[in-house]
Amino acid sequence: MTETGKAIALHAGLVVLLFVLQWVLPAYHHGNLARVMVLATYAMGYNLLFGYTGLLSLGHAMFFAAGMYGMALTVKHLGWAPAPALVAGIGAGLLLSLAVGALALRTAGVAFMIVTLMFAQAVFLTILYFGEWTNADDGLVLQRAERMMWGLDLSNDATRYVAAWVLFTVCLGLSLWLVRSSFGKVLIAIRENEPRAQMLGYDTFRHKLAAVTASGTMSAAAGAGYGLLFGYAGASFAGVQYSILPLLWVLLGGAGTIVGPFIGALFTFYLIDIASGFTSAYMAVVGGVLIALTLFARQGIGGELRRRVWRWLP
Amino acid sequence: MSLLETRGLSKSFSGLRAVHEVDFALPEGEVRALIGPNGAGKTTFVGMLCGRIEPSSGTVRFSGADVSHLPAHRRIRAGMAYTFQITSIFAKLSCRENVALAVRRRHGPQSDVIEALARVGLDDRADQLAGDLSYGHQRLLEIAMGLAQKPRLLILDEPTQGLSDGEIDAFCTLIRELKAETTILLIEHNMAVVMQTADRITVLNFGEILAEGAPDEIRANRAVQAAYLGTEDA
To answer: Could you tell me if residue B110 is inside a domain?
Structure first.
């Protein structure tokens, strides 16, 4: 089998497995996996920028929140149906990432991290400031009637699982296509050696801006999906914690691999779930695992798989 | 007509004059060597030619157009190629992908990838990671990336540094072959290579052109000997 064939077979296999699991899993894990698939979509968006382009953002929560609030505000205040509201959320993420990218990419390295962090804080504070519309700390709760999409009730567990699966599958397919395209290969070249990419005649600024926008837009799609599927948009999703989480998932799962974000999100979710059953200091367990992985599997789980087993893993 | 021309090209780094008022012309089809003692300003000069370094003053014209204010990637697209003095390859990508990045940018056919690798003798290593190559082979890969761009002007910054004698001979043969296809500006320390390959030589010293001429003239030039050897009568 060719490497392209293997790559497609592996990812299609994962997607099929996730689809089949809905009839196998007990209710508790069924609900968890729906959530993990949406969070993994967020991580895949983050991975496009961090894993493939080599740009470390500390402010991706602003894109997740842009999607979430772009969706929820249009539902709440304009009375939009979920489908156009979802598009509004994704559009909000696209515009925000384009604007933030154009400004933040004037910096590099640590400065880029700080600038993205500051932009995200500004977004967070903006959400709190306009409490009249966003309901500030309490957030916006979407009622069942507001979550009826094309006659499907997104508050229903089975429907929600399938909707999360569709979102995850579409974004996984898009990521795979993107990183294997010639555009994606230029992003990898920029990650590996930006001056060289430039001296091959590539406009690295425009490529990086496109990467920020693609990454921010995918993160926004995850945010809009999350709000719609779980019926809530809250300011905490725009906080620092939600900027750090995708970084953590991607690091654990394997930066610069397509399956890494899913592995990382799933692993972290169940690590916290299981550890919190034993101790209230479950974040210490997560910290310990993170340190162990950085020491012994620096490329994350997916990166180790690529190094040891599947060299062709995209 | 000159393919490349500079007028009054200068660069100062906080008061230090690295390159000063250089008027330089390179006709199409020529192999020109740029030599000079360490610190003469060679790398700064070519950095300004290909847009990596912003000049303090002066102009650069490439194929009739003023490119002084174009960013590096636009100059590369206009037909320049630059190979780095300090090897700069994509270490974690295969040799094939390193060269393919150069070919894809100009929408060339895939066959150009192996062709460029074959010209420097790396076609049997196409699937190795570039970072796993020996230093000499990395230099050759760097040259292959330059060739794969099919440039009108190929700027080679100390290409033979770290190559074995056999590899240097092969390199000289390659340059002679390339003469029919492209104009070459070669920055080189190895005088044997310069004398074998260059049509003309430009000598840079203290950021200014000290001499320019055919290899034999330069070899006989007393000012050049003085600059290199530090004799009294310069």
So the answer is: yes
Q: How many CA atoms lie within 13 A of A164 on its CB side?
A: 28
Helices (H), B120-190: 135-148, 165-178
A292 inside domain = no
Per-residue pLDDT tens digits for B203-215? 999 999 999 999 9
Which of B150, B180, B195 corresponds to the end of one domain?
B150
Number of separate helices (H) and strands (E) present in chain B? 9, 10
Contact, A204 vs A197, CB < 8 A?
yes
A203/B88 Cβ within 8 A: no
Task: Check: pTM over 0.80? Answer yes or no.
Answer: yes
The Cα A35–Cα A265 span in angstroms is 10
Q: Is residue B234 part of a domain?
A: no
- Report ipTM (2 d.p.): 0.89
Write the single-letter amino acid at A290. L
Domain extent, residue B98, equals: 89-150
- In A169-227, at which residue ranges do the beta strands (DSSP E only) sit? none
Q: What are all long-range contacts of B189-198, with beta carbons under 8 Å and residues at least 24 apart? A: B189/B35, B189/B158, B189/B161, B190/B160, B191/B35, B192/B168, B193/B160, B193/B168, B194/B33, B194/B35, B195/B219, B196/B172, B197/B31, B197/B33, B197/B172, B198/B31, B198/B32, B198/B33
Q: Which residue from A minimizes the CA distance to B47?
A: A199
In a domain, A294, yes or no: no
Contact: A193, B89; criterion CB under 8 Å: yes
Which residues of chain B does A196 touch, with a Cβ-Cβ cutoff of 8 Å? 84, 88-90
